[in-house]
Structures are given as structure tokens and as C-alpha cells.
Amino acid sequence: MTTQRSDEEWMMQALMLADKAWQQGEIPVGAILVKDDEVLGEGWNQSITLHDPSAHAEMMAIRAAGKALKNYRLVDCTLYVTLEPCSMCAGLLVHSRVKRVVYGASDAKTGSAGSIMNLLQEPKLNHQVEITRGVLAEACGEKLSAFFRERRQQIKAAKQATQG
């Protein structure tokens, strides 16, 4: 008998993927797409690395899952992502028919799963996605905050080096 992994366990894996983004100098967001307790796709932010504004963690995980399933529809799948999806990613999740999204930190600037808008559950669209908010929100938010603190310190140090 197998036991289903919990939302927290999957989010921990997404946080590890976010570390890969950070190591590449990308905003540390990680995503993992799961169906029947099996990983179908993983992703982390790679927009800077790949010179691709669409290379968000969710996009990368969805692309990998579509290839794995040989289908552009991801019915009965759950996406775990460390940051609330933006409008581009929310649209992707609706079009791919993902059943459920679980996210960690909310995004007050671009969040499209309820923070500034809710595209995932827009009744005028032909598919609505279930949402579970705030799973390991503190850990997800702190990873992002630490990244941006480090980036600000690097910028300040670089300015001081050129002025000195």
C-alpha cells in the first residue's frame, strides 16, 4: 500500500528546485507537476539564463509534463509552486487543464491566483483550477526575500567598488 505525499512534502521539493534557480542567478521559484503521486515535470525560473521571458518555473514544469504524457492536456494533475502564479502562468494552467494548484508565497504585484486577480477561477473561462494557498508560505517567502536582500547587497557593493 502506498501513501500519498502531503502538500508540504511536494512543496519542499519545489523549494529545492527554487534553489537551482538561485544558483543560476534567477529569482528562486520552483515548480513540480504531479499526477497520482508521480512527478511528471519539474521546473525553476530560467528566464535570464535562457533569454526567454516565458521560462518561468511553472512553464518549465508544464512543458516537461506535456512531453512526458505526450499530451497538452494535464487532466487530474497538481502543480506545486513556491510563488503564486502570474497571469501568463495562470493562463497556461487553465489551458492545460491542470486540476489543482498549490502555492507557497502570495505575490502582491503579479499574483493571478487571487492576489491581484484570479484567472485560475475566472467563471467566464472554460476551465477553473482548484487553489490551495499558503503551503509553507513562510519558507517560500523567506527564500525570495533572502535572494533580493543578497541582490541589493551585491548592487550596493558594486556601486561602492566603482566609486572607490
Tell me what you see in this structure:
Belongs to the cytidine and deoxycytidylate deaminase family. ADAT2 subfamily. The active site is at residue 58. Zn(2+) binds at residues 56, 86, 89. The protein has 164 residues and is an alpha/beta fold. The protein has five helices and five strands; from the N terminus they run αββααβαββα. The radius of gyration is 16 Å and the shape is globular. The termini are far apart. The relative contact order is 0.14.
Note the topology.
Elements: H1 7-23, E1 30-35, E2 38-44, H2 47-50, H3 57-69, E3 78-83, H4 87-95, E4 100-105, E5 130-132, H5 137-163
Parallel strand pairs: 3-4, 4-5
Antiparallel strand pairs: 1-2, 1-3
Percent of residues in beta strands?
A: 15-25%
Structural class: alpha/beta
For the biggest sheet, the summary is: 5 strands, mixed
Average pLDDT over all residues: 95
Between the first and last Cα atoms, what is the distance in angstroms?
Answer: 65 Å
Biggest sheet, spatial arrangement of strands:
2-1-3-4-5
**Could you give the order of the helices and strands?**
HEEHHEHEEH
Uncertain regions spanning at least 5 consecutive residues = none
The gross shape turns out to be globular
Task: Give the helix tally.
Answer: 5
What's the number of extended β-strand segments?
5
User: What proportion of the residues is helical, as a percent range?
Assistant: 40-55%
Radius of gyration: 16 Å
